Amino acid sequence: MFSLHKTSVAFCFIFLSASAIGGNPFFVRTGAGERGTGLVCVMKNGFWSSFSSQSLLAYNNSFSAGVNYENRFGIPELGTCTAGMIFPAGKSSLGVIYSNFGYPEFKRNMGGISCGMPLSRNVSAGVQIDYFSEIVQGEYDKIRFITFEAGAAFSLSEKATAVIHIFNPVPNSIRKSLLPSTLTAGAEIDLSKTLFAGAEAEMSTGENIIIRTGFEYEAAKKFWIRGGFSTENSSFSFGLGYLLKSMKIDLGFSTHERLGVTSSVSLVFKIK
Q1: CB–CB of 60/241 below 8 Å?
Q2: CA separation (Å) from 135 to 100, 103, 109, 168, 172?
Q3: SS3 string of 146-184?
Q4: Among 63, 97, 159, 271, which is disulfide-ready with 190 (CB 3.0 to 4.6 Å)?
Q5: CA 264 – CA 81 distance, rounded (Å)
Q6: How many CB atoms lie within 10 A of CB 182?
Q7: CATH number, domain at 260?
Q8: What residues contact residue 145 under an 8 Å CB cut-off, 6+ apart?
């Protein structure tokens, strides 16, 4: 039954979530390890970052599966659950991802199928087909989008990589509703065998440019410490990671200048 109160609450959470997420809320960035480095992930080779920059799938040649839960500011209604799998397929790798954000009165679901492969010794590329649905309880239509994203990674040296990625390069003139586009470029360097550092710039439709920087340090065998900073809401991040046999456990936290702390936990299983 239609409820004005529930609908009003739903719209409050829509505006709150937009303020909390910032940037492009449809460009999915997930993973506690990525959260710990300030979401510097378009050039960092890892399980979850492969779904933010599909060109990195070319370097994930083992069967892997992962789950992630993100809790924004201790508000259950702003929680996001994400699951993904990566399958090696000859010289390329295939990935599938599903994400659910919100609560019964307001939900946003996302599903994607991706592929990444090397084009040469120093260049790889990837693409992902995305499906989005958004549901607001009441007398409102269910919004659906289909789009794609793609990118390329360039090995500058044995220790440095640069990546460019674009999300939704489709004119909004052919859509009934606006779906923002995002262009991201970044670079990373391995300062040593145990220290990674990276930076990226992100531009989204109708938003200010966002700069992110982050690092990951292997403080002990199979134990990582992470940190990062984003100009979006002047957000600081930190996190921890530990590899237990074939399971990797990650925790990540980031701050918001007004709303508080976002926490994230990930489990990733890899079968070589």
Answers
A1: no
A2: 11, 10, 9, 20, 20
A3: EEEEEEEEEECCCCEEEEEEEECCCCHHHCCCCCCCEEE
A4: 159
A5: 10
A6: 20
A7: 2.40.160.60
A8: 26, 130, 131, 132, 133, 175, 177, 179
Structure tokens at 67: 């789950």
Number of other residues whose CB lies within 10 A of the CB of residue 2: 8
Rounded Cα distance, 271 and 38, in Å: 28
| Domain count of the fold of the chain | 1
Length of the chain: 272
Question: Could you list the residue range(s) of the whole structural domain that residue 261 is in?
Answer: 4-271
Q: pLDDT tens-digit profile of 66-93? A: 999 999 888 888 889 999 999 999 889 9
pTM of the shown model: 0.85
* pLDDT attached to residue 80: 92
pLDDT in tens, 136-166: 776 566 788 899 999 999 999 989 999 999 9
pLDDT at 14 over 60: no
Q: How far apart are CA 52 and CA 43, in angstroms?
A: 9
Lookup: tokens for 66: 């992962």
Interacting residues of 3 by C-beta distance below 8 A, sequence separation 6+: 137, 138
Q: Which amino acid is at 131?
A: Y
